[in-house]
């Protein structure tokens, strides 16, 4: 196996090389700091995406199901690709053994390919929901989204099993253990071309065409043709016939509601389009490098450019939760509730104890008055403050769950 061929793997598993730049303290410090910083933000952000969708009932939509699949795939890339590179930068050798080489390579490819298909899936879902709203009522459902996600992960899991037979560990001339190719680099060209076409070119072509059609409907059409507007017109007509009047009081609120739905759809579409654009831009350096090196007898393996390519890949897996927070009010509110969950639990317990204490004091006071005055007719104690506090507490509790 060629000593430099390991850099053609999508995540640059092993950093051991004869090039002196990999032993420079500047390179190690910069690479470790950047990788840890990006992976740390990405791991926390993607975990939050998964949690808010599972915890918050209102967030369980077909689109968000695909975003959860994308978050899980990005987590797999960050954990299986980013963190092993930190240990390689520090140790200068592969420390995870033969089983680690096979498993880590498999999960790297699985995360990369599943993220690409998840992006394609929510792009198709958005196209059907906006351009074919009547069909979307039966097609764009949470149950169907779960089935599609299961198919995506099953297919990519089987497809990526090929890498169990393509990588292995070996010892180079410097007596350092490496995880890389098992056979000659030239034999991997069909695999790279297939990956490049299926998991990069085709998703981008599909996304470009579909978002073009979506944009024509959302931004060029004067009025969105979706089920909400049809339902509202039917209600207006029924109300007019029932009351025998042309002045329907419910007619005015319907227009803002329709405009609000259109604005919400535009915002979601913009957010998903940004995710696709970042996917295309951040994966372009690495995909281009691998494709070009597959045709070159002496591949281009500059250490700093390889670090740049890896950072772009990790940034693509880490930046999506940041985009959701910046461009989606629902995700932003859900993230805030998730971060304040512990604080609200403490505040809730404090309010409960205060309410109980207040009730006990009132009961004691009422008992003393009854024993002293002995009124003929006992009036029930009305505690408006207690009822208000309990009601607020209940709303806070259920809003979090």
TrEMBL record:
Compartment list = Cell membrane
Q: What is its main location?
A: membrane
Spell out the coiled coil positions from the record. none
For bias kind Polar residues, which ranges apply? 244-255
- Protein name per Swiss-Prot or TrEMBL: Thyrotropin-releasing hormone receptor
Got a GO cellular component term for this one?
plasma membrane
- Give all residue intervals belonging to the G-protein coupled receptors family 1 profile domain: 45-324
Q: Which InterPro entries match?
A: GPCR_Rhodpsn, GPCR_Rhodpsn_7TM, TRH_rcpt_1
Q: In what way does this protein cross or attach to the membrane?
A: Multi-pass membrane protein
Q: Which Pfam families does this entry report, sorted A to Z?
A: 7tm_1
Alphabetically list the UniProt keywords. Answer: Cell membrane, Disulfide bond, G-protein coupled receptor, Glycoprotein, Membrane, Receptor, Transducer, Transmembrane, Transmembrane helix
The answer, when asked if Transmembrane helix is one of the entry's keywords, is yes
**SMART domains per record:** 7TM_GPCR_Srsx
- Which region ranges are annotated with the description Disordered? 227-263
Job of this protein: Receptor for thyrotropin-releasing hormone (TRH). Upon ligand binding, this G-protein-coupled receptor triggers activation of the phosphatidylinositol (IP3)-calcium-protein kinase C (PKC) pathway.
Q: Its Gene Ontology biological processes?
A: phospholipase C-activating G protein-coupled receptor signaling pathway
- Supply one GO molecular-function term: thyrotropin-releasing hormone receptor activity
